[in-house]
Amino acid sequence: xxxxxxxxxxxxxxxxxxxxxxxxxxxxxxxxxxxxxxxxxxxxxxxxxxxxxxxxxxxxxxxxxxxxxxxxxxxxxxxxxxxxxxxxxxxxxxxxxxxxxxxxxxxxxxxxxxxxxxxxxxxxxxxxxxxxxxxxxxxxxxxxxxxxxxxxxxxxxxxxxxxxxxxxxxxxxxxxxxxxxxxxxxxxxxxxxxxxxxxxxxxxxxxxxxxxxxxxxxxxxxxxxxxxxxxxxxxxxxxxxxxxxxxxxxxxxxxxxxxxxxxxxxxxxxxxxxxxxxxxxxxxxxxxxxxxxxxxxxxxxxxxxxxxxxxxxxxxxxxxxxxxxxxxxxxxxxxxxxxxxxx
Length: 343
Fold this sequence. Notes:
Blueprint: H1 2-7, H2 10-15, H3 20-23, H4 33-36, H5 49-62, H6 69-78, H7 109-121, H8 125-137, H9 155-168, H10 174-185, H11 207-218, H12 238-253, E1 256-257, E2 264-265, H13 266-279, H14 283-295, H15 297-301, H16 309-322, H17 334-340
Antiparallel strand pairs: 1-2
Helix pairs in contact: 5-6, 5-7, 5-16, 7-8, 7-9, 8-9, 9-10, 9-11, 11-12, 11-13, 12-13, 12-14, 13-14, 13-16, 16-17
C-alpha cells in the first residue's frame, strides 16, 4: 500500500480528504522566505507546491481574477532548465535533479502538466512551450505517461498530461494525444463489471485514476458552464466507460469514494465534474457532486480555518463550470480565501 501511495502523485494525496490534517501544518520555520514568497498556502510545499499553485492560478483565471504577480513569478522560478517541474524546489539556485521513479524525486509529469496549464492561463507562452515539449518528449512507448520518467505509465499521470497538452492545442501534439488516449483504453474495465479504469494494469477500477483519465479524455481541466445531457451510459469507447462509472458512483453517493482509505474523495469528485461539463453530459452526477462539494467546502478547502489552496483552486474551477457563485460557495468566498493565503 505504501508503494502504491508513493507512485500516485503526492499532490493528489495532499489534496485528498484523508490527508488534509497533514497538509494543514505550517511550513517549517527554516524554509527560505525567498522560496515561498508568492506561494499560495502556508502548508509544507515539499510534495504539492507546484501542483497547488497551478490549481490556484487556474481557478482564479477561470473566474476572471488576475493572480498576483508574485504568484506567477513563484511558479516561473520553479521551472527547471529543460522545461519540467519538480513538486517543489526549496532552492531554485540549484539545478533540478534527474527524474527518479525508484526514489520518487526530481521532475514529475503531474507537476509539469498542471504548471503547463497554469502558465498558458497567464500567457507565459515560452515557459509553457518548454513544459509542453518536455512532456511530449517523455511519453512512454505504450502511449501513456508515468509519474516519474522511466517509470510505468499510469492513468492519473496520463490523464493530467492529456488535459494539459489538449489545452495547449499544438498541431504537433495530435499524434501524442491519440497514443495517450489509446493507452487509456488498455486499462479500462468491462462494462459488465461496472466500467472505470485501473491505476495501472492489472488492477481494479480506481476512482481517482478514472476521474483524472476522464478529464484527459474530455479536455476538462478548464471549462465553462453549459447545458448538460443525462448521465452517460457505458459503451465501447473509453470516454463513455469512464463517464458511466464515475456518474453511477457520484449519483449514488454524492461523491467518489476515497482511493486511499475511508470516506470520500472530493478532489476526484471535482475532477469528475469538470470532465462531465467538458463532455456535456452527467447532469444528475454534476448536480449531486456539486451539492456534496458545497456542503463539505469548509472541511475540504478550509480545514480548521487554514486555506488549502489546491482545493480552493479546484472549487473555483467547479464554481465556474457549474455557474455557482465563487464568492459564496458553501459559505466560503473562494477568491478571498485563496488570495489571502498567498505568502
